[in-house]
Design brief:
By secondary structure, this protein is an alpha+beta fold. The protein folds into four domains: 3-45 and 174-219; 51-164, Beta-Lactamase, CATH 3.30.450.20; 238-330, Orthogonal Bundle (Helix Hairpins); 336-488, Histidine kinase-like ATPase, C-terminal domain (Heat Shock Protein 90, 2-Layer Sandwich). The chain is built from ten helices and twelve strands. A five-stranded antiparallel beta sheet has the order 2-1-5-4-3, sandwiched between helices. It is rod-shaped.
Length: 493
């Protein structure tokens, strides 16, 4: 548990470092895009303002007279323009784009011709959208904004005036000033936004990692055995959902562990009960058998028959216990398949009642059967429903007192099932035992003086569930109990 804060802090710094790197990259890209867009905007404004500069130059000085270039007049005009705006460069081109004359500050021109494609696009577009850039004769491979106009004689182009609006000197000075401007203006703005975003991001990361640290700490405490650990996070979001899911999972696991502990305790009690119940008939069988062997010659016929009867009853008891354990284990392992067949439920009930009538007579308990007329056939596994009825009747007789009665009612009012009710007037079931009487391995408080392993009703419940129904029970102490379930009616062919 001591490593949890350290891990949370380490995660905070790792996420913060990654966030800072991404933020710096984003800020750099944003600044570059902003500077580039602003620079292009300034160039576009310059080109639009000077769009007709070349045309005015052609109108002011005729660059060609009878096919010849007036050197003196042309030179004077070009130098005048350069004096007014030293950032421009003026070129006179022939119709093929070859440079015939030019004026530039250093007089260094490295190209002898200019690509005419952009020149024609410029001349043919009165309102250009975006920049139109052409060759810079002084810097091969570099494109500059320009103004251009044709020189016409009798409507026939004799050449072109080509003016670079952003010469080398202009570009150098502009880049320097532009860079300083944006370093001052955009640098401050970007730095302010960067700092504010960084602070907000670090705060968000701190909150996230804090909550994540709580989640990790909760998982570790739960892993170390603190099963009552729960994680409490405020607000919403995915981490809160993770915490809620963990809490639900922890509650389920804790509940399952408690149930397993309870089942384990019940298993121990079952082993003790079964051991005791098995020991009794085994001891009786062994004792009476040894007596028969040791005193075979001295026992009377009545004594011998009494011993043999005890051995038979103990054997039947032992067989019943083993059979219950085997049946329940198969039912719980879902290894039982129903062998369904149509049968008259009334006949089956009478057969079962006849099996226990002698026992009921010995205990002075009456058994009554009430059946509706024209009961439909039910489609059930006969042997297993016989087991259900037998267990319920045995259970009723076990807790009936002399003079009590057991009533079996068969009701056919439901369209899809025959309802079976087995009611006794016995000692009843305590309220504390009622929710658990069908649990496996449960032995109620009322059974302490009667015996039993608590398997009979568990078998009843599972067999009835296999038939698609449920067993319901109601009881009042000292007034009796009622067990109710339905059995499916035979499907029509």
């Amino acid at each position: 548990m001591s490593n949890a804060p350290h891990r949370s802090t380490s995660l905070f710094w790792r996420i913060s470092a990654a966030f800072l790197v991404v933020l710096l990259l984003f800020a750099g890209v944003t600044l570059w895009i902003h500077i580039d867009a602003s620079h292009n905007h300034a160039l576009e404004v310059t080109q639009r303002l000077n769009h007709d500069l070349a045309k005015h130059t052609v109108d002011e000085v005729k660059p060609f007279l009878n096919g010849e270039v007036p050197e003196e007049a042309m030179g004077t005009l070009m130098h005048s323009m350069m004096a007014v705006n030293p950032g421009i460069e003026v070129y006179l081109l022939d119709t093929a784009g070859r440079i015939l004359k030019y004026v530039a500050l250093d007089g260094v021109v490295k190209l002898d011709r200019v690509d005419m494609g952009p020149v024609r696009d410029f001349i043919n577009t009165t309102e250009p959208e975006g920049l139109i850039e052409g060759d810079d004769p002084r810097t091969p491979g570099v494109r500059r904004i320009f103004s251009a106009a044709p020189v016409l004689e009798e409507g026939v182009p004799q050449g072109y005036v080509y003016i670079i609006l952003e010469g080398q000197e202009y570009a150098g000075a502009a880049d320097t000033l532009f860079g300083n401007y944006f370093l001052r203006l955009s640098g401050r703005s970007v730095l302010l936004v960067l700092v504010l975003t960084l602070l907000a991001g670090l705060l968000a990361i701190a909150l996230i990692t804090k909550n994540l640290g709580r989640i990790v700490s909760g998982f570790r405490r739960f892993k170390d055995g603190a099963l009552d650990t729960r994680i409490t996070l405020s607000g919403g979001g995915e981490l809160t959902e993770v915490a809620t899911t963990f809490n639900e999972m922890a509650s389920t696991i804790q509940r399952n562990i408690e149930e397993l502990k309870g089942i384990d305790q019940l298993r121990k009690e079952l082993i003790g009960n079964v051991s005791h119940d098995l020991r009794t008939p085994v001891a009786a069988i062994q004792g009476y058998a040894e007596t028969l062997l040791m005193k075979a010659d001295s026992l009377t016929t009545e004594e011998r028959e009494g011993y043999l009867s005890t051995i038979v009853r103990s054997t039947e008891r032992l067989k019943q216990l083993v059979d219950d354990l085997f049946t329940l284990s198969k039912l719980e392992a879902e290894q039982v398949k129903l062998d369904l067949e149509p049968i008259s439920l009334g006949e089956l009930v009478h057969d079962v009642v006849n099996k226990v009538r002698l026992m009921a007579k010995e205990k002075n308990v009456s058994i009554n059967v009430i059946m509706a007329r024209d009961l439909p056939l039910v489609e059930v596994d006969v042997k297993k429903i016989d087991r259900v009825l037998q267990n319920l009747l045995d259970n009723g007789l076990k807790f009936c007192r002399p003079g009590d009665r057991i009533t079996i009612e068969l009701d056919g009012q439901e369209p899809d099932a025959v309802r079976v009710r087995i009611t006794d007037t016995g000692v009843g079931i305590p309220d504390g035992d009622l929710p658990h009487i069908f649990d496996r391995y449960f032995k109620g408080s009322r059974s302490s003086d009667i015996g039993g392993t608590g398997l009979g009703l568990a078998i009843v419940k599972r067999i009835v569930e296999l038939h698609g129904s449920t067993v319901e029970v109601s009881s009042r102490v000292n007034e009796g109990s009622r067990f109710t379930f339905g059995l499916p009616v035979r499907r029509s062919a």
